Amino acid sequence: MSPIIHSLVMHFGEMGSRWGLNRTLGQMYALIVLTEKPLNADEISTELNISRSNVSMGLKELKSWNLIKLSHIPGDRKEYFSAPKDVWEIARNLMMERRKREVDPTLSALRDVLLEAPANEQEEYAQQRVKQMHDLIEMLTIWTDELQNMSNDKVAALLKLGSGLSKLLDVKERLLPGKNNKE
C-alpha cells in the first residue's frame, strides 16, 4: 500500500467512528474505494493486517449499507468486492441508508407522539416542539428524495449555488416586504 493510500485508509478509520462506523470498517471501505481492482477478503485482511473473521463481518456490514458490490472472477471461487466507481452513487447510497436507519424511524416516532392528545400544558408545549422537528425533518426528507432523482450534474450545480440562494432570498424579501417568507 502506498504512503498516500495508507494515510487515507488510516484517516477513514479515524473518521469512521464519527460517521457511525467502527474504525476497521472505515479502513476497509477506504481500501476498497481507493483500489482500482476488486479485492477479496484475504487481500483486505493482509493489506490491513486484520483478522479474516473481522473482514467477513465488515464486508457483511458494508453490503448491508449498499456501499460495496460483489463480483466473481472466472475460475476463482472467491468473492471479490469493489465500491461503485461513481462517488455520487456512493453518496446517494449513504444518504438513503442513513435515512432508512435513522431518519425514517425518528419521523415515525414523532408522528406517533403527534397522534396522541396532550394531557396537560407541558405535553402541549412538547407536542408543538415535536411538530416543528417533524416538519423540518419531513421537509429535509422530501428534499433528499428530490436529490436522489436528480442527475449528478444538476446536484453539482445546485451545490455550487451555495450562498447565491441565500442572496436570492434576501432580494425576494426586499422586493416583497411583508410577505410571509416561510414558504
Automatic annotation (TrEMBL):
<protein>
    <recommendedName>
        <fullName>HTH-type transcriptional regulator</fullName>
    </recommendedName>
</protein>
<comment type="similarity">
    <text>Belongs to the GbsR family.</text>
</comment>
<dbReference type="GO" id="GO:0003677">
    <property type="term" value="F:DNA binding"/>
</dbReference>
<keyword id="KW-0805">Transcription regulation</keyword>
<dbReference type="InterPro" id="IPR000835">
    <property type="entry name" value="HTH_MarR-typ"/>
</dbReference>
<feature type="domain" description="HTH marR-type">
    <location>
        <begin position="19"/>
        <end position="78"/>
    </location>
</feature>
<dbReference type="InterPro" id="IPR036390">
    <property type="entry name" value="WH_DNA-bd_sf"/>
</dbReference>
<keyword id="KW-0238">DNA-binding</keyword>
<dbReference type="Pfam" id="PF12802">
    <property type="entry name" value="MarR_2"/>
</dbReference>
<dbReference type="GO" id="GO:0003700">
    <property type="term" value="F:DNA-binding transcription factor activity"/>
</dbReference>
<keyword id="KW-0804">Transcription</keyword>
<dbReference type="InterPro" id="IPR036388">
    <property type="entry name" value="WH-like_DNA-bd_sf"/>
</dbReference>
<dbReference type="InterPro" id="IPR026282">
    <property type="entry name" value="MJ1563"/>
</dbReference>
<dbReference type="InterPro" id="IPR011991">
    <property type="entry name" value="ArsR-like_HTH"/>
</dbReference>
<dbReference type="InterPro" id="IPR052362">
    <property type="entry name" value="HTH-GbsR_regulator"/>
</dbReference>
